[in-house]
Amino acid sequence: MELEDVVKMLEEGKVKMHELEGLLKDPNAATRARRLFLERRLGIKLNAIGSTVIDFNQVYGRNTENTIGAVQVPLGVAGPLLVKGVYANGLYYVPLATTEGALVASVNRGAKVITENGGARSIVVKDGMARAPLFRLPTATDAVDFINWINTNIDKIREVAESSSRHLRLKEIQPFINGNNAWLRLVFSTGDAMGMNMVTIASERVAQWIEGNYPKAKLITVSGNMCVDKKPNAVNFLLGRGKTVISEATVSRRYLMERFNITPEEVVNVNVRKNLLGSAYAHSYGFNAHFANIVAAMFIATGQDVAQVVESSMGITWAEVDDNGDLYVSVTLPSLEVGTVGGGTGLPTQREALQMLGVQGGGDPPGSNALKLAEIIAAAVLAGELNLLIAQHRRELGKAHERLGRAGRT
């Protein structure tokens, strides 16, 4: 069918937007048709939205539906940032997609401080993507018996789960009971994929097998919110989901005094009173200054699931004066959910951002690229945290935003 014919059918209500790929046999043409329909219906032009390098044949059935174009976000770069990790080892230029003035400059200055003081030491201490099917049992006693049965059949459950993907391994099952409800928090290694879809498919197979072999257990949902996905929560804070990663650095007293006229004790004081006491008083799940800023900017740049910034930006900033009188500072991110294959990582601009970091696609060995990305993100978060602590003690926050975030405005 011709493009104009399809647009006219949309205007007359004879077809629905989601049917256009089937009619035109071309997701790019379907995208243009929907955009033209909206322009006429709304009396506006969507030229910028239509200007994109994306081939919607690569998007259809993978990333989104009812496409009309793309939204562009300014992409800045911070660095070089020296990272000394198990997988990330070298100088990195960090891509940050953001509309917040001063953010890239903040990470950039923090990266300079860290790099000139020997670099950031990053390490992933735990790795596992979770999905938690919820089952209903007749009684609480039955729920306890059910968990015991699960533990005696874990080898078979592992076999069923791993049959869904050659990249997936079941690491453990964390059970939870409340009344006659039982959650099985299934934790998997997922290679270089973030793995949420992978573990959902595996969990559905496991749940189906359980229902077939334990009739008292009735599946309520494959995702019972003990996973926990896209919600701030204590479970992921304590048990982790995705990558639990730490990045740390030491900044000399002399450097801080000469460069910023600030002491390690003054940085520690800001961290304790702001990030620890202030966050505790607010009952926050983030004992930090602005993890979410850096995590969100890097997620957008590298094609991660942006909604997972919610739990990925939970964490704690720690600072102390070390035995030599220098500043020790670290960030711990318990639930950093990232991958280098799948999701939005295959989109053209996101793929290039991953190439900048040397982590695009699958790693050798499998899983190493995702672990490397996690180490780099944690180091970038550390740079942002360190700089903001310094800036807030020096009362530079408002000045920086006035200079870099309000150009041309009064």
Describe this entry's structure for a reader.
The protein is α+β, with helices and mostly antiparallel strands. The chain folds into three domains: 19-72; 75-127 and 240-404, Alpha-Beta Complex (3-hydroxy-3-methylglutaryl-coenzyme A Reductase, Chain A, domain 2); 133-221, 2-Layer Sandwich (Alpha-Beta Plaits). 45% of the residues lie in helices and 21% in strands. It has 17 helices and eleven strands. Strands 1, 2, 3, 4, 5, 6, 7, 8, 9, 10 and 11 form an eleven-stranded mixed beta sheet that branches. The longest helix has 26 residues, at 368-393. The chain is globular and about 70 Å long. The termini are far apart. The model has no long low-confidence stretch (mean pLDDT 95).
Keywords:
about 400 residues; alpha+beta; 3-hydroxy-3-methylglutaryl-coenzyme A Reductase, Chain A, domain 2; Alpha-Beta Plaits; eleven-stranded mixed β-sheet; 11 strands; hydroxymethylglutaryl-CoA reductase (NADPH) activity; 3-hydroxy-3-methylglutaryl coenzyme A reductase; oxidoreductase; HMG_CoA_Rdtase_NAD(P)-bd_sf; HMG_CoA_Rdtase_N
The count of DSSP E runs of length 2 or more, i.e. the number of strands, is: 11
Average of pLDDT: 95
- Relevant CATH superfamily of the largest domain: 3-hydroxy-3-methylglutaryl-coenzyme A Reductase, Chain A, domain 2
Under the CATH scheme, the architecture of the largest domain is: Alpha-Beta Complex
Per CATH, what is the topology of the largest domain? 3-hydroxy-3-methylglutaryl-coenzyme A Reductase, Chain A, domain 2
Structural class: alpha+beta
Q: Number of domains in the coordinates?
A: 3
